[in-house]
Amino acid sequence: MVDRLLDKQVRLLEYLTSSNAIFGDRGDRAIDLTYWGNSRALLDLEARFSHEKRMHKITAVFPRTFELLGNHRAEIVRQFVRACPPTDIDRLRNAQQFREFLCARGQGEPILSPYLVDVSACEFACAVVRVGTENSRPLPDNGGVKPSQGWIRRRSGLILQRCAYDVRSVFEGGSAEDVPAERETLLVIGMSDSDEQPRISEVLPVIFSILSILDDWTDPAGFGDTQELSELLRQMEQHGLIEVRP
Amino acid sequence: MDKRAQGHPAVGIGYRAAIDEWTRENLQRFDVLEITIDHCIHGSDRRRAEIFDLVGQIPLTAHGIGLSIGTDTPLDLAYLDQVAVVVERLQAPAYSEHLAFTRVPGRDLANLLPLPRTEAIAESIIAKVRTIQSRISVPFLLENITYLFEWPESDLSDAEFLNLICRETGTGLLLDLENLYLNSRNHAFDPREFLDALPSGIVQEVHLAGGVTVDDPGLGRPFFADSHSHPVPDGALDLLDYACIRQSPATIIIERDDRLGDGDEILDDVARVRARIAGQRSELVHGRSAVG
Questions:
Q1: Strand boundaries in A104-150, DSSP class E
Q2: How many CB atoms neighbour CB B128 within 10 A?
């Protein structure tokens, strides 16, 4: 039976994204040398070029994470290649793949820094905020309920991140080698029009809880009607954490 | 005034968000900017706004990187419809894409790969080009790519393959001279033979760029890579001279994706291209008066 072009293209891409082609490893994908003959060295070069382009996108999102990987960087990247072939041209999608790989890999992995997952989460959130993906969020229909004046929601573009370590020092000019304190840290990551870089701020648990349920326009009366709460919501608006419907 | 309306090729660069501010400061130095359509489709609101803000300030042309026309699956019509909207919004005179494939279902190399150059594959591309032409309101152009390897069953030359598709569909060519230059060095053929084989008038746009030499121990010889990171080599500019004897591109774009901070180098490339065009026009005028 004659191969369709698609079958050949699939086999070619499986090879070009394999650790065989990229690192010269044995194992996961072989190339049909009867078919490709002496083109193998060129295919391997193509594979390395493409891999470098992909990793360039990923390292641009995770500079501190890669610093933390230190001597393990090459081995982690090798494992990433084996586990996660590229599925999209987009920089953030590739970064997301790497982050998910690290999260899965980080579970009970003693050689990696215990706060690596938190650092990578914050770096990924910064990249998402910077690109402004969240800004494209359409106004929710609120389940058919028309929002009224004075209703509130989390400001568009904010990302909430719960960390096991206080990794802010890593992003505040400190070295990635300065070990952050191990304590639950509730972070809000966002960027206003006047900011050149995303801001990473710690917030109180009560504020984090309120923000985490404010995906849609919500009637603040549902939270109660105390002066304390009104003051808290006013401060959250002042700090750009929530929007109030005019 | 639009240089294209005066019969000169418009000379410009590929717009890159990373140098948006620098590009705006130097806008008067370019006749045209090339917009990567996929940056409009997938980019952030801010990036999209920056791009669309250029409409009316300078002529824009539209270039795609996400179609993967060569993947042996039906075209992504939803993507094409998005392209059509962006092209219209940019008021672009043409939409170009690479004669290549980058992905298969479930795997995306994000790198341009060649196709087997056979009549059967050309037929499948011809059908796809016709679909594109039916959905996009401006002329569609195909771009020649640089490639490291070739498919064993290829039995047409680069020019024969391109010509066949262009002839059957009436589509024009975005001639990437850097790609031609690199291919000719990597695969040891005469790039002028390729240019000689193109019908006069087929080239609508030109790309130029500068790459790097790669010394790979597995190959035993240096390879030249299209990295869009360095000044356009004189060899590619010589090919521009040669191509423009029989071709009259409306637009010449210098592509730069790396070392973007060196703006003077980019402006110097623009000046070198303009000097070549001016030199060629002067030669043509001189030649005509000598004859006449």
A1: none
A2: 19
Cα separation, A143 vs A154, in Å, equals: 17
CATH number of the domain that residue A146 is part of: 3.90.930.50
C-beta atoms of A89 and B102 within 8 A: yes
Give dist(CA A9, CA B113) in Å, integer. 10
Given this model, what pLDDT does residue A112 score? Answer: 78
DSSP A181-221: PEEEEEEEEE--TT-SS-EEEE--HHHHHHHHT-SS-B-GG
Each residue of A125-149: pLDDT tens digit?
999 988 875 454 554 555 566 778 8
State residue A206 phi and psi, 5-degree precision: -65, -40
Domain of B24, CATH number, reads 3.20.20.150
Interchain CB contact of B217 with A (< 8 Å): no
Residues 6+ apart with CB under 8 A from B188: none
Q: Does B218 touch chain A (CB under 8 A)?
A: yes
Q: How far is B220 from chain A (nearest CA, A)?
A: 10
pLDDT digits (tens, 9 = 90+) for A68-106: 999 999 999 999 999 999 999 999 999 999 999 999 886
Report the domain count for chain A: 2
Same domain, A142 and A69: no
Q: What are phi and psi of B143, to 5 degrees?
A: -110, 135
Q: Is residue A84 assigned to a domain? A: yes
- Which residues are paired to B11 by β-bridges? B252
* CB of A36 less than 8 A from some CB of B: yes
Residue in B with minimal Cα distance to A5:
B72
> Does A156 touch chain B if contact means CB atoms closer than 8 Å?
no
User: For A17-60, how does the pLDDT look when each residue is reduced to its tens digit (9 = 90+)?
Assistant: 999 999 988 766 677 778 887 788 899 999 999 999 999 999 99
Instruction: Let me know whether A86 and A143 are in one domain.
Output: no
Q: Which residue of A has its CA nearest to B43?
A: A131
Structurally, how many domains does chain B consist of? 1
**Which residue in A has a C-alpha nearest to residue B67's C-alpha?**
A89
Containing structural domain, residue A185:
134-246
Long-range pairs for B277-282: beta carbons < 8 A, 24 or more residues apart:
B277/B8, B277/B9, B277/B11, B277/B240, B277/B244, B277/B252, B279/B241, B280/B241, B280/B244, B280/B245, B281/B8
Q: Does A133 touch chain B (CB under 8 A)?
A: yes
Select the residue of A36, A43, A49 nearest B111 (Cβ to Cβ).
A49
CB proximity list for B54: less than 8 A, separation 6 or greater:
B15, B33, B35, B60
Does some domain include residue A82?
yes
A246 and A164 fall within a common domain: yes
* Interface predicted TM-score (ipTM) of this complex, two decimals: 0.91
On whether both A1 and A95 belong to a single domain, the answer is: yes
End-to-end CA separation in angstroms for chain A: 67
CB B180 within 8 A of CB B239: yes
